[in-house]
Amino acid sequence: MREKDYTGAKQWTYSVLSSQLTSELLKKATKRKRPDYEEGDKRDSFPSGHTASAFSGATFIHKRYGLKQAIIPYTMAGFVGYSRVQAKRHHKTDVIAGALISSFYTWVFVDKENNNLSLTTDGESTKLEYKTNF
């Protein structure tokens, strides 16, 4: 929102909502036990919603603004997945599935930002510029 990229924010909202809805439906359908499951706990291990959320943000930055901008977010998202497994809250396949689901929806809904068009003004004149590579 700081970038005033309202189109990107809308696209990210679609991808994150789709990812979370899919994750919740899969949790209810698969009813997989968590590694730390105890009798009476919910059976909602597959896929990892935390990992899906983390990778949704990282993949959005990658798709919208480029891989260079997404290296740190991907590292952080990977740590979320790693920590979910280490804390025995998810199996490795839960984490991988969460990352893949959110990445899929982000690649479907999000477009690369078009930095080719710019509008500038110096107080006396306004310039509209379009850059392209041939």
What is the radius of gyration?
A: 19 Å
- Biggest β-sheet description: 2 strands, antiparallel
Q: Order of strands across the widest beta sheet?
A: 1-2
Beta-strand percentage range = 5-15%
Shape, per Cα inertia axes: elongated
Attribute tags:
single chain, 134 residues, mainly alpha, two-stranded antiparallel ribbon, 4 helices
Descriptive account of the structure:
The chain is mainly alpha-helical and 134 residues long. It contains 4 helices and 2 strands. It has a two-stranded antiparallel ribbon with strand order 1-2. β1 and β2 form a beta hairpin. α1 (6-30) runs antiparallel to α2, α2 packs antiparallel against α3 and α3 packs antiparallel against α4 (92-109).
Brief overview, please?
The protein has 134 residues and is mainly alpha-helical. The protein is built from four helices and two strands; from the N terminus they run ααααββ.
List the helices and strands and how they pair.
Layout lengths: L5 H25 L18 H17 L1 H20 L5 H18 L7 E5 L4 E5 L4
Antiparallel strand pairs: 1-2
Helix pairs in contact: 1-2, 1-4, 2-3, 2-4, 3-4
